[in-house]
Amino acid sequence: VRVANRLVVFQPRNLFTHRLKYKYTCDKVVALSSAVKDTMVRNGIPAEHIEVITGGIVFPEQLAESGARERMRARYGFGTDDFVIGHVAAFTSEKGQLDALEALRTLLPKHPNMRMLLAGDGPLREDPRNKETVAALRGAAQLPGYIKPDADFYAGLDLFLVNSTAEALGLSALYAMAHEVPVIASNVGGLPEVVGDTGWLIPPSNVPALVKAIEEAASDAAALHARGQRAREHARGFSAEVTAEKTEALYHQL
Q1: Cα 80 vs. chain centroid, distance in angstroms?
Q2: By the 8 A CB rule, do 178 and 240 touch?
Q3: Which of 68, 100, 142, 162 satisfies CB 3.0 to 4.6 Å to 152 for a cystine?
Q4: Nearest-CA neighbor of 184 among 164, 155, 154?
Q5: Can you list the positions of beta strands (E) in 103-246?
Q6: Three-class SS of residue 154?
Q7: C-beta neighbour count of 62 within 10 angstroms
């Protein structure tokens, strides 16, 4: 029995090879998300040949201990009253860091306590446009490079941003949600499936929509906290244990 996995949402480069691999030479295809399945169906793979089993995360049963929020903020020079937005992704064109920085530039005159932490590395981290914008923001945005987010990291955030133009699933959103941080995400790929009704879904590459969503998130601390709690419970359904159970059930069925 042959099972193939499809983990990406982009259009296949070669339809003949795509159909040979996923339609004729395997018994079932496991798609990472419903968005991945939809892309495959549009490219000639029968829907009944595809099983959606979303990727899983190691779900944190315990949140960060007391004092973690202050430690994280002290590490990056943020104040206790700052509204801190996190973003963790490779610095590539589809991840939207330039749009995030532009949104922060728009917000600061009216909301001077807004802060943004764009973690990650990649070719566009050294892009002159990023450097110029960060310099103009005078410390309101930081690009610390690659980090491995832990419970303390998420404890210091008020909001998490995944404003990509393409995402097969959106594991970074899930990790934030599992740590009780609500998410603003682009309405693309697997992100609507991940975020559900717990956060905000906005059109991709739309800075005004991003600004509006951030302002709404920052306007009501109690409502934001409630969203974070709902996000954590929603993310529990994407745990590694759930993924393993569904995968095992499929293998038994085959």
Answers
A1: 25
A2: no
A3: 68
A4: 164
A5: 114-119, 141-145, 159-162, 183-186, 200-202
A6: helix
A7: 6
**Strand ordering across the sheet containing 28-31:** 3-6, 28-31, 50-52
Render pLDDT for 56-107 as a digit per residue (tens, 0 to 9): 999 999 999 999 999 999 999 999 999 999 999 999 989 999 999 999 999 9
Residue 40 contacts residue 29 (beta carbons within 8 Å): yes
Residue with tokens 């968005």: 35
Long-range contact pairs involving 23-26 (C-beta distance under 8 Å, separation at least 24): 23/49, 26/2
Structure tokens at 157: 């955030």
Q: Is 130 helix (H, G, I), strand (E, B) or coil?
A: helix
pLDDT digits (tens, 9 = 90+) for 114-170: 999 999 999 888 888 888 888 889 889 999 999 999 999 999 999 999 999 999 999
| Token output for 195 | 């975020």
Residue tagged 């410390």 (tokens):
139
- Tokens read off for 135: 């310099």
| CB of 107 closer than 8 Å to CB of 215 | yes
Burial class (CB in 10 A: 0-12, 13-18, 19+), 83: buried
**Cα–Cα distance, 81 to 56 (Å, whole number):** 34
What's the pTM? 0.94
Asked whether the beta carbons of 169 and 190 are under 8 A apart, the reply is yes
From the CB of residue 222, how many other CB atoms can be counted at a distance below 10 Å?
A: 7
Would you give the DSSP letter of residue 139? T
The 3-class secondary structure across 195-223, one letter per residue, is: HCCCCEEECCCCHHHHHHHHHHHHCCHHH
